[in-house]
Batch of 2 targets.
Target 1
Amino acid sequence: MKKVACFGEVMMRLSTPGHQMFGQARQFNACYGGAEANVAISLATFGVPASFITRVPANDLGECVWQELRRYGVVTQGVYTGGDRLGLYFLESGAGFRSSKVIYDRSHSSFAELTLGMIDWEAHLAGHEWFHWSGISPAVSQSAAAVCLEGVKMAKKLGLQISCDLNYRSKLWQYTDSPEEIMTELLARTDVVLANPDDVWHYFGIKAEGYDIDDPAYNEAVLQLLVQKFPNIKTAVTTLRRTVNASHNTWAALMLQHDESLVSQTYDLNPIIDRVGGGDSFMAGLIYGLIKHSDDLQYALEFAVAASALKHSIEGDANLVKVADVAKLLEGGSVAARVSR
Amino acid sequence: MKKVACFGEVMMRLSTPGHQMFGQARQFNACYGGAEANVAISLATFGVPASFITRVPANDLGECVWQELRRYGVVTQGVYTGGDRLGLYFLESGAGFRSSKVIYDRSHSSFAELTLGMIDWEAHLAGHEWFHWSGISPAVSQSAAAVCLEGVKMAKKLGLQISCDLNYRSKLWQYTDSPEEIMTELLARTDVVLANPDDVWHYFGIKAEGYDIDDPAYNEAVLQLLVQKFPNIKTAVTTLRRTVNASHNTWAALMLQHDESLVSQTYDLNPIIDRVGGGDSFMAGLIYGLIKHSDDLQYALEFAVAASALKHSIEGDANLVKVADVAKLLEGGSVAARVSR
Amino acid sequence: MKKVACFGEVMMRLSTPGHQMFGQARQFNACYGGAEANVAISLATFGVPASFITRVPANDLGECVWQELRRYGVVTQGVYTGGDRLGLYFLESGAGFRSSKVIYDRSHSSFAELTLGMIDWEAHLAGHEWFHWSGISPAVSQSAAAVCLEGVKMAKKLGLQISCDLNYRSKLWQYTDSPEEIMTELLARTDVVLANPDDVWHYFGIKAEGYDIDDPAYNEAVLQLLVQKFPNIKTAVTTLRRTVNASHNTWAALMLQHDESLVSQTYDLNPIIDRVGGGDSFMAGLIYGLIKHSDDLQYALEFAVAASALKHSIEGDANLVKVADVAKLLEGGSVAARVSR
Amino acid sequence: MKKVACFGEVMMRLSTPGHQMFGQARQFNACYGGAEANVAISLATFGVPASFITRVPANDLGECVWQELRRYGVVTQGVYTGGDRLGLYFLESGAGFRSSKVIYDRSHSSFAELTLGMIDWEAHLAGHEWFHWSGISPAVSQSAAAVCLEGVKMAKKLGLQISCDLNYRSKLWQYTDSPEEIMTELLARTDVVLANPDDVWHYFGIKAEGYDIDDPAYNEAVLQLLVQKFPNIKTAVTTLRRTVNASHNTWAALMLQHDESLVSQTYDLNPIIDRVGGGDSFMAGLIYGLIKHSDDLQYALEFAVAASALKHSIEGDANLVKVADVAKLLEGGSVAARVSR
Amino acid sequence: MKKVACFGEVMMRLSTPGHQMFGQARQFNACYGGAEANVAISLATFGVPASFITRVPANDLGECVWQELRRYGVVTQGVYTGGDRLGLYFLESGAGFRSSKVIYDRSHSSFAELTLGMIDWEAHLAGHEWFHWSGISPAVSQSAAAVCLEGVKMAKKLGLQISCDLNYRSKLWQYTDSPEEIMTELLARTDVVLANPDDVWHYFGIKAEGYDIDDPAYNEAVLQLLVQKFPNIKTAVTTLRRTVNASHNTWAALMLQHDESLVSQTYDLNPIIDRVGGGDSFMAGLIYGLIKHSDDLQYALEFAVAASALKHSIEGDANLVKVADVAKLLEGGSVAARVSR
Amino acid sequence: MKKVACFGEVMMRLSTPGHQMFGQARQFNACYGGAEANVAISLATFGVPASFITRVPANDLGECVWQELRRYGVVTQGVYTGGDRLGLYFLESGAGFRSSKVIYDRSHSSFAELTLGMIDWEAHLAGHEWFHWSGISPAVSQSAAAVCLEGVKMAKKLGLQISCDLNYRSKLWQYTDSPEEIMTELLARTDVVLANPDDVWHYFGIKAEGYDIDDPAYNEAVLQLLVQKFPNIKTAVTTLRRTVNASHNTWAALMLQHDESLVSQTYDLNPIIDRVGGGDSFMAGLIYGLIKHSDDLQYALEFAVAASALKHSIEGDANLVKVADVAKLLEGGSVAARVSR
């Protein structure tokens, strides 16, 4: 089966229990995740051999990252040890009209202080057929951006498919005012891109006419402009999330491939148990779909949307459903939500 | 007041907290319940004298069953001690599009190993006017089925009203391929039956034309076929549950009696706190309604539906609302949901 | 900046976790609040200097009240120590069709046993420009009513703006059958009144034609009758809450000033995390709005409604959002509910 | 078997989790207990038929008392409903050198407002052979003291054995400066008394020479003086607790009967999980011992000490061990503390 | 490095939180363990390559076993899927004089229903140098005993060192009255045996003169008799546990090899956080010691005792300390218990 | 009353619940503390006016520091806002032979990035009579050391008493190999020093003959050498902690003043609930004692030791007992640990 390698930072996530605000919390729930690790864990849970490349400190918290990846069957040969600290993020989980809040505390992390040559990319990408990175890695530090590019180049050289989730985060990208140059180098070598219009705007200043982020046509137009700029992109995808409130969204996706545009069915997500990692679970579903159903892109897209619809019902960063769970939702619709007994 | 005896297995339920998946749980919430015990506890809470007949092991977990029944005022003279283990079931509580999951672990339980003659049925049914059983007891083992029939026969002999919730469970019925014979003997002696179309199909191969489980007319047609097969049934009832998702259902019921068909009002259940025991709480409300409001069947039906609508807001197997709470909902509608202070 | 003084009782609130019923609870969540303290805490969190006047017992529970007020920056020079016990209330948090329940246990509290002369009103109101009281204080005991009037008179004498939330509670007012006389004396000295039609009916026997509590026109008519009776009232306001179920309400408000009637936008509150303190958070938002946006009453009203819409997403009695959070909701609508990262 | 009736108040106990101080607690653990109810529950768990006489309010908290007593098999026909509130007490559980703290909040409770004639003593004591009361009931209010005496007189008239735990509590006895008169009337009709030297001093001003509460001889001397004053007392007992710190005590007892003095073995209690209810569990063990082993007073005494040694390892007010558990400790000593598997 | 294979059942352990009794528990803490898996996890945590051979059901609970083993780096190629249920055990954690209680619920488990030929022993033992089994496997069922012998024979054939923890459990061994025959066949092929005198007595009817389980000399005498019966045993070891109470034990060990007898230092374990798995952690430490320090048996023994002394401070079945933690205790004694910062 | 100002970093502390290891924790308990803030909170709780000088980031976590200090009545005018992050530390709470572990994550914190001139020392020290700093502040960064010296100089100029807890932490002091120079400048202006022999050795290379940290004489000798080096020191103190295991220490202190040496009584701390902050609580007790009982140094010392003995029974960084609690222990000894009711 195709083997997928993912590269990125794994952080400790400290989230307030229930819907407590930061100032109310006397405990924090701890889990370990990050955009790309969430993809790897979901893929492994789908039965796709997945390996992970990252760097963690040589302390008990760094070891928790090893344990968590191993637990889900992700191969950890590419996890390096060193540096000063594990990146953290604090999450206040919103509800109703009160949005969730994230406080990043990931500067100076072991991952952010990766430098060129630290990772034996050839060893870790050999035998793989797919490499996944996201826009978060080049955002955390200049050296991490360089290491990410190092990996993308080696993946290209070894002939892997390369996918990227643009994942623009305004609170990162502290070291430069112009991420465009960095992202251009990376994206010019990438085959499959998950890109929301706001990401495309922030990175490349690209927008289509008649800005309306909730309009599928607008989303499609932006993807077309992106593909024009990066003709190497074979598959461009965007998720369509409409926010009714923090507990209630609608969810679908649109895929552009060879001028063909596909739109998925729409899911009414209510209640949302945990919205963080929703896009990552979509990305994992998309990679799975493109690998296993390359002959039926509509199914691949529907799989990704259904998988990520299920993720919104799961606490924690990572999607823990299996292929059978996704298939059940695709076949049964809401009847799938009956008690299984 | 009419005294009601119920017969069935009481299990320890181990459910994941919040909406955790099985693989995420480090704790399980424990409570004690079962289809028929849920009926007995709800009746006792309504103020109807209720007694329970079952068998539990002679250990601390079996003792918890005694304590839990006593706590709600259920008479426990009919609880026998013996056998190897208390039946268990594990519950993963779903949300949104992710359904709840049940893992039964009830084979070889003290109840499943009941044998003929163990229960002094005459002693435990004397002085009662109603006997309730469900399709779960004959499903757990051949000997439990025989004991259930033993009880039904004695109840008939003593002149009790007999009610049954068909409760078909595909994960049970391991010892036989044809539950029809067993259920026919039992149902031929039963006066009040709660039967959903799928139950009727699985047990007796009966279905009406134009299968549509969400259509009241289809439900009514199935009940009519059932009553034709079992003319001894005086009252046949079905609940009408439409699943929007695991957290949101609609809920109503339909009753057939002497060719008269009654339909209740419909409740929009959102959010659902705990869906397990919803049918049991309806059954308890129905028995209460038929006993106390035998002259107003529409009210009896509405009572049962309102009582079970309230159950969906309560964590645990059993419905813990009082008659006054149900009456308040019947009178006030959604205004009843204002804070009471 | 204008300084606001509030007077009222602070209780320990003991609420069942999750949506447990009283009979299920093995733990209670404890927090400290009360209608007027909730106003003071919200104002302090908005950056308005707020001080509080109350009385608590000389034990560790009374001290928790000091700590909680101080924590949010409320000035506690006016907190007196003495008496026998801290008032309590128990809260069962409902869901769906099951309403929340309150059991008050506040008789004989240190606050209820306040007597004339105990409070040095002049000292505590000096330097302030606003005084807030609510209908709960005169309801708890005859002597508390007298002390409340003592405070209102001093506030009047010192030239403060005076506001009141009528807050009728049927379970209080045990010492008299006719609260009208007491409330008339108090209201005749009050400038800003938050009054729901049911409050007005219970206190003063006033109702308008065509009773319909969900109809803004009816609400406006009642306010007009109230202002006719109390021409000293400059601003009369009512909240418009429609209860779909205990987890889902709609929420808006209507303001009457100088024959001008303003209506706010309507919020769909779903899910409601904690409905208690919703009115208090509105009152705090209104005082803030009237102080800071006295030249734009529509904005003042919208601010109060948005602030209290956010409160419904927060567990505990008090609203803990900041002015910026409210402004973000006012500007962004549901988009404000996206994750902030 | 001998049936035992107990009379007293049942309170809700709200204790801080772990070893939190009051000011740290955000949750309180709730259970239901009281000196005499603890005796009744322990006796019922030993298999002795026990009934309870008390009064609780007609609300959901009062109902929890019913449920808790029933759960352990205590007969609740003597539980009356009425009055304003359930008595409460708050418990901060100490550790090491920090003592546990109790804040009583039981004034004006349903029990404290019992009045003469409310209880049908004859009905509730008929068929019983033993009546137990404690010094707490006459301490809570003058009318409760009168009702307690009413009960003691009826017990005497019906020929029951009467036992008392003196249980002096300095924070109660608010209504009188001289409990002596009241206690004298009660004790003059009592057969078995559990009395610590400090109790005897506070009630009757009796002390022996050379005050040393840790000295068995001093304890015996005080009991002799007590029996001289009340020659009706057949059995006088005292527990011998030496406090190393709040987590570590030693524990034994001394019994005086017909001039014979018996001393039990001493247990080293370390760690103490919950010290509250230690004396009550001794009292229950003593009643059990005197009923079942009246021919072997030393065994009766040892049973009571061993039972209460076990109680110190159990969270909550009541002792939940069985006769077999106590026997195992009596036979096995520390070997009894090995894992049972 | 030497690779160690372990064979045994992995169960879900459901333990009461804090020191709650079974009847008090509303939640159970869940973890996964078993005598032999505890050895494998501890070895893997020491850095010794460990693989595990067992059988779990094909459901979400079985999958938790896979995840837990993988998390600690145990190789899971030998985990088979099939059968009906995961074995369980319930644990009530004692304190003071109240012992911990275990309720086994492991009959009919996937492991108990293993049959000859199911396991490809050659594949799973190839490349290993050590095989570990315990007396629990042959105790759970006749077929499991046969499979265990199958494994031991293959290990012998492949030339592995074989170790065994006798682990007599009176609540198991239901299928036969004479475990001696079975254990004799197994032990006759075993090189390293952990055997307490009571185990030896129950299995083989062997005891030495002057029974005193706390006396090292008595323990040594029993080991000598055991080695006389099984001259193939190269190393016989016993732990010396003296039970002060359930929270306080002393702990040491004695090793017999080639007529040489070694005794370790004694540790005062107080408080004990979790006593379950104490012997397993000793076994893992012993295997580690014998592999890494075969030239210094005293150090090997001290390592095993120190490792297991640390285990008593860790909640859960398995010992999670590293070699460095053990070395620190061996070097520093109680000073090792200072805060590390 | 004398006003005390303290300067130092406040961190979020994230500790594992119960005695979980880092790898087991799924939640962390959060509180806020630091060596000097613990002193300020304890002083405020003793009724001594205390103010605090520090720097926190402008986010919700920084705000929690404000709230926590205010809650205990510490004056927060000296809390500055700015910088990137709140310092953190992770705490694994040990038990028995397993030591507690601390992982610092405080580099690059708002406090560590303080620079000269940021703090208006004159404003914050005016009106105070005592200034307290500790060896942790100069250890976190070079600029923090400079700011600390800036403060000490201003305190000297304004005539305040200056105290210091040497608090050597090997995991800090990353920026220099020779803390001696920095500490010499600071200590040369300090009047009261809490210094353990290991601190003195690490900072100044000073040790006395016959190293034995548990020997009071050795401790006294080291203090004498320290005072010889810094003749400005009026009072030198050391605590005497002997570690039996992580749950059991003994605790006393020794004071040197004008060649007079005083030794306190010794406390047997068992069990220890939370050992972190033990020294800080002693320091607060010492400042209190020196201020309030300057005429009775032995009492001052005993007060500090008793206060900190009580701290070991309290979870969290700060000592929350009152003067009356300490006095009760000083007067009553172990009897003080009886339940207060």
Note: Residues 170 and 202 of chain C are 9 Å apart (CA to CA).
Target 2
Amino acid sequence: MVHQSTIELKTNHHGQMHDLTERVAAVVREASVVTGTVNISNVGSTGSIGCIEFEPGLMEDLPNILDKLIPPSRSYGHEQAWHDGNGHSHLQSTWLGQSLTLPITAGRPNLGTWQQVFHLECDVKPRTRTIVVTVMGE
Amino acid sequence: MVHQSTIELKTNHHGQMHDLTERVAAVVREASVVTGTVNISNVGSTGSIGCIEFEPGLMEDLPNILDKLIPPSRSYGHEQAWHDGNGHSHLQSTWLGQSLTLPITAGRPNLGTWQQVFHLECDVKPRTRTIVVTVMGE
Amino acid sequence: MVHQSTIELKTNHHGQMHDLTERVAAVVREASVVTGTVNISNVGSTGSIGCIEFEPGLMEDLPNILDKLIPPSRSYGHEQAWHDGNGHSHLQSTWLGQSLTLPITAGRPNLGTWQQVFHLECDVKPRTRTIVVTVMGE
């Protein structure tokens, strides 16, 4: 069985994180899949999907470490294409990942207590994001 | 067809790696799936799943490069939540990934000769880990 | 429904990127799957699969940032195993990821306009690569 739905998200700034866990769980419930997998994918190449303990400290730490290791700069080759100062956004998003697949057990995404699904805005301006959630199983 | 099983793992220290390849292959065999996919996911946000050539050199190199780029430190914002010195564990695990999906071909995970499935303990103390293995296909 | 096929690729050098988007879309069309997922996996542990805006700037930026943060060196433990100078290739490929799963919507991989599927050669010599594409859905 396959069920697909989308989550719409408005983001405000570079480094902003959203907790998607309950919205993903709601799509799994709609699908009535008890055992299987759920794929969560950001449409576009400057946003990321992943898992983290969603608490205020890590909501600063994750964007900070990304900006430290892959810093904002006008010297990326990408700057030649668009001149919009978001070369680091692309590299951060690609390296962290734009897509995630999780197991479904007993009708819910199988996550630890302190493990949530997040969206991270890597771009440098507010965006409207579409996240595709695909449930497969039985 | 969907088949789901778990692998239990006891880990001893930060940076310890386990080769899960044969245990994942055994779950695929149990499922009698010839063609499809297998998802391998760590429950919890301070352990990682990935693929690597599982040999003693890389078993040191991978935790070393993670500790170099995302170093242990008491200065992470996460420290404010729990004061347990594992902010870097969360960031390493999130960036490397907690979940992996591989193709199944001819009844086995389709991997290269020097490509194995690993679990990496990113936390700073021994943990008992549950890894969920979900096989789908026909 | 499950459909699996392979893409063969000849690579020439470390850091070379190929755009796989159209070849992946062709496998999805062959499968006649309208809604579902497609998994794209590199066989072998020194090549990566991911998503990026495939344009000349980022084709330099991505290998550059990987070489900056995980630099070529003879000092990796992996060098003891094979003495072939590709320790960084393994670490780059493992950290960036060797496998990707994307949603299928309306018979096509659901990607943004500036979001393409790439293969990155992380090894230090030309390789012949096999990429396994697995389509599931209905």
Note: Chain C has four helices and eight strands.
